[in-house]
Write a structure and sequence with these properties.
The protein has about 140 residues and is an alpha+beta fold. About 35% of the residues lie in helices and about 20% in strands. It has helices spanning about 35-55, 85-95, 105-115, 120-130; strands at about 5-15, 20, 30-35, 80-85.
Length: about 140
């Protein structure tokens, strides 16, 4: 996994004075904002999400297009390269809570609810114990 990715985006100013950002390496993604800084911020967020999804699938990310491979539709359009440093985003994604359905006898559920027990916390603690992880450990070692 790479630490940093750099991809081009095509920035277009529309007749309505908004900014459209297209991703040549990720067709189908379009960001539209009134302010360029907001458009670039949102474009970076989309780029991070795309890379995280690719990494999760253990696929190879596309090779970034070079300026020679890109065609501008209009002379007022621009090519900008966005870089993303992935470690903080990977850490954040690893901390994201996911839902997992759990089956148990009704009497156990009723007794636990009556006692005010936190199902999620107890399940997490039990799983960490079963895996031999300490309670502070935030992710499974690779």
């Amino acid at each position: 996994m790479q630490t940093t990715y750099i991809y081009p985006v095509l920035v277009e100013r529309t007749p309505l004075n908004t900014f459209n950002i297209h991703f040549p390496n990720f067709p189908g993604i379009l960001v539209t904002e009134n302010e360029i800084h907001q458009a670039l911020k949102k474009a970076r967020e989309h780029l991070v999400q795309q890379v995280l999804e690719i990494e999760e699938k253990k696929s190879l990310p596309p090779i970034p297009a070079t300026p020679d491979e890109l065609t501008l539709q209009n002379s007022s359009n621009h090519i900008i390269y966005l870089d993303i440093y992935m470690p903080p985003y990977r850490d954040e994604a690893a901390q994201k809570s996911v839902s997992k359905n759990c089956t148990m006898p009704k009497w156990l559920r009723d007794a636990s609810e009556h006692a005010g027990l936190n199902f999620s916390l107890i399940l997490q603690s039990g799983l960490k114990e079963a895996l031999g992880l300490n309670s502070k450990q935030q992710k499974f070692p690779d």
